[in-house]
Amino acid sequence: EIEITDCFIDYIPQLRKLLSEDANAHYNGDPAAKSIIEVILSYPGFLAVMNYRIANYFYVHNVPLIPRMLTEISHFQTGIDIHPGAQIGKSFCIDHGSGVVIGETAVIGDFVKLYQGVTLGAFSVSKSQGDQKRHPTLEDYVTVYAMSTILGGNTVVGNNSIVGGNVWLTRSLKPYSKIYVSEDFDTTYKIIESDK
Questions:
Q1: What burial class does residue 45 get, using C-beta atoms within 10 Å of its C-beta: 0-12 exposed, 13-18 middle, 19+ buried?
Q2: What is the mean pLDDT of the chain?
Q3: CA angle 154, 160, 165 (to 5 degrees)
Q4: Nearest one of 128, 124, 152 to 138, comparing CA atoms
């Protein structure tokens, strides 16, 4: 236990850098934010990401129970449920936050922004499949708007893509794509996929 504690102390400068980037992502991503201090002291999205980053360190180092306890305390406080095993890149922003769920095997790239009610979830699987990748991957610079659900371990949202609000997505999107609920009642979704 002493060794992991010493290692965590050595990790603090790297953690501080990551959290500084997250705080800036929240500040830059929210026109209502008046200062970085306001983000750090009062934004539930930032609090949830901070607790996740601490919990993830201990999860990766095979510390039992404590990582999950940390993220569940944050879940109780913010309504944001991030499993400590998720892999999340730098400059991550959760705007508003309530109802966000990020599963254990989700992979999130750099400069990703999620809005409230987003689920990065899994299809129902048996306990024996628990060690498989069950949750989606979001590549860099992806934005997912409110109340969208993205499911499945093979689902990849390509970099610089936008997932509109209230979308139910179970297949991959190419980079630079957009998917949104159509106002045209003949089709449920409109998908614009780039050839880049």
A1: buried
A2: 94
A3: 75
A4: 152
